[in-house]
Amino acid sequence: MAVICKAQSDSKPMNAAATALKQYFGYDTFRPLQAEIIEAVLAKKDVFVLMPTGGGKSICFQIPALVQDGVCVVVSPLIALMKDQVEALQANGVSAAYLNSSQTTAEQRNVEADMSVGKLKLLYISPEKLVSNYTIAWLKKFTINLFAIDEAHCISSWGHDFRPEYTQLRTLKESFPQVPILALTATADKVTRKDILEQLNLHNPTVFVASFDRPNLSLTVKPAQDRFGIVHYFIKTRPNQSGIVYCLSRKGTENLAEKLQAKGIPAKAYHAGMDAKARAAVQEEFINDETPIICATIAFGMGIDKSNVRWVIHYNMPKNMEGYYQEIGRAGRDGLPSDTLLLYGLDDLIMLREFAQQSGQAEIQLEKLGRMRQYAEAKICRRKILLSYFGDILEQDCGNCDVCKNPPKYFDGTVAIQKALSALLRTEEKVGSGLLIDILRGARTQELLEKGYDSIKTYGVGREFSVFEWQQIILQAIQLGIVEIAYDDHKHLKVTTFGKDILQQKRNVPLVQLEQFNAETRKKTAEQTPKEKPVSEAELLTQELFELLKEKRKRVAEELKIPPYVVFSDATLQEMAQKKPLLVAAMQNISGVGEAKMDKFGKGFLGVIVKFTIEKAKQGAKITGSTYLLTYDLYQQGKPLEEIAMTRNLNIGTIGQHLAYLYENGYKINFDDLVSPQEFQRVVDVYLALNKPEAAKPIFEALNSEIGYEKIRLAVAKYKLM
Ligand code: ADP
Ligand code: ZN
Questions:
Q1: Is the CB of 61 under 6 A from ligand 1?
Q2: How far apart are CA 618 and CA 434, in angstroms?
Q3: Quick one: fold of 217-377?
């Protein structure tokens, strides 16, 4: 028989790692690659990790920090990120601190003092601070178990987020040759990756490349007609959710936020042109769930760890796949289903081409734009395209993109294409898409009349299609290589050789079915509150409780002045809402409830669930365990057990059993009112004499039926906890 080698994951250090995962973070299992990475780190190897945003990189150095002697030093580029991570660690009962230029000398001295007494497990530090002679000498006094370099791509000028301070980290290995280095990043192409390894002087590093797939993110691309209508509808169908709309320009963010506000949607703008204070305030409100929706330029999101961003919209097409992936990656870090939507129109393409050409790196930028465009125009699973761009292969269609959900249907577009081509040729290819559509639809615009296009043979032959439909037809014609945009000639459309072929040989052109939703109907739909999908009663209860738990979270967060998602993630609250734990033990089983959070917040959230369950059970809802709570509710109202039994139509022994069970699980019961000290003593004597029987019956009989079942059960419960 083959011996199955169960990795070293059964080893002692890995057991300690798994214990720490549950104890501090409340998670039962590692995410893909986390265990392997931690194992390599604990083996004192230099390690490089490429993992997408939300993949769970932090745990990879936080767990080793917790299970080893000494302190882990984490290099992080952004002050806001450091603060966030330290707060999150502290909420989990981990002793961590940060050092950076935003602190006063006194604050820095405090951190140094904590280090001196061995209090810290993790120290976050900015790169420039770390490499100063003072800090290096100071750190040498301590046992450092690991240097974790977060956002390691910042070291490479090839990467898209180069930070000169990071290059100073090159000397780290010289100063601390014995300390392993863990470099982590979410964005690194092959060149950047090599650069990181070299610059950090990693010694024979173990490289981990996680899958870039984020299956919880849905991918949708829509033709951009009536962008505002689409966005408004999208937001209205997702009440109480937090999201980001990325716009191309500063002005665009402001306009959109204003228009949304006018529709009663709490949105605010964020862009680099705002003064620092106003910007920080908007960011803070977003993080604290006070302003759920931000219309932003791509400057927004970097350095925000908020795990419950439920959706991301691109109001315009981004200029490359790297940016797009990073931006949509800000949704759903907690792993819950989250939606992304990209609006794409010909105008985006024309504008982005101009930007690219002016960028000074025209060739590469245009190439990148081309890849982005292929993605936006794809008729096959979008996730396949996205992942293949990053070197990942997805074997099966994802089922969570618009193409998978609505595979394209085709219609015979031959006649439409012929009309368009013929009109185009009759203008001597001197028009762009807008004017061509006007000609086809027989519009009477000034430009058209001035140029005399109303007299050509194909004027008005295309009235059967709306403007929006013609836009889609022309876009498809461009995608199919039938016409092309002459960027060097006023962006006029030109018929390609292939297009001429089609005209002459009368070849058939299948086109993807056109979106029927025109601006008018979309506007009407957006005005109405969309109908809710039918949901089961159990789901409704879960949703209602989820909202109550979010409110509770907000109150707790305000009181402690930490972001709500640091208290508990959406994923954790969702699991609570669904499982409705009524006991401490059940609460501890919820993913994300570690020991510290159980102590600090557990009871409060249990209280919300218990109250909710009692209320709903009284109205007849069936919730597991609610019968205990209905008994407890009457008990708390001061009713004698006999009366509770009558009201609930249960026998009194059962009532006693309910209360005994709740008592054993941490509920308050006032025993002296229920069982006298003499009765208690008699029960315990018999219980012990009979060798602690499970059932109450032998005790009842040994006591000659003189003490009721309810008292026996309560007395035994009390004894057990003494
Ligand atoms: P990254 O730094 O890679 O973007 P994070 O470390 O911030 O990702 O983790 C993203 C989210 O996933 C966090 O909310 C984190 O608590 C959660 N998470 C990480 N590891 C696990 C795990 N093993 N089980 C459940 N949730 C996890
Ligand atoms: Zn797909």
A1: no
A2: 64
A3: Rossmann fold (3.40.50)
Span from the CA of 57 to the centroid of ligand 1 (angstroms): 7
User: pLDDT at residue 29 above 60?
Assistant: yes
CATH class of the domain comprising 2-209: alpha beta
In the reported structure, the alpha carbon of residue 407 is separated from the centroid of ligand 2 by a whole-number distance in angstroms of: 9
Any idea which ligand is nearest the CA of 375? 2
3-class DSSP string for 21-83: HHHHHCCCCCCCCHHHHHHHHHCCCCEEEECCCCCCCHHHHHHHHHHCCCEEEEECCCHHHHH
Note the pTM of the prediction, 2 decimals.
0.81
In this predicted model, what pLDDT tens digit does every residue of 228-280 receive, in sequence order? 999 999 999 999 999 999 998 999 999 999 999 999 999 999 998 999 999 99
CATH architecture of 627-720: Orthogonal Bundle (1.10)
Environment of ion ligand 2 (residues, CB < 5 A): 381, 383, 397-398, 401, 404
Fold agreement (2-209, 217-377): yes
Whose atoms come closest to the Cα of 91: which ligand? 1
**Looking at the CA of 565, which ligand is closest?**
1
Q: Map out the domains of the chain as residue ranges.
A: 2-209, 217-377, 410-517, 537-618, 627-720
pLDDT at position 658, please?
Answer: 94
DSSP 304-343: ---TT--EEEESS--SSHHHHHHHHTTS-TTSS-EEEEEE
- CB 332 less than 6 A from any atom of ligand 1: no
Amino acid identity, residue 226?
D
537-618 carries CATH number 1.10.3210.10: no
| 410-517 is classed CATH 1.10.8.60 | no
Q: Are 404 and 411 in contact (CB under 8 A)?
A: no
Using the mean position of ligand 2's atoms as its centre, give its distance from the Cα of residue 381 in Å. 4
Q: Confirm or reject: Cβ of 30 under 6 Å from ligand 1.
A: yes
Tens of pLDDT, residue by residue over 440-451, are 999 999 999 999
**Neighbouring-strand partners of residue 48:** 183, 207
Distance 13 CA to ligand 1 centre (A): 21
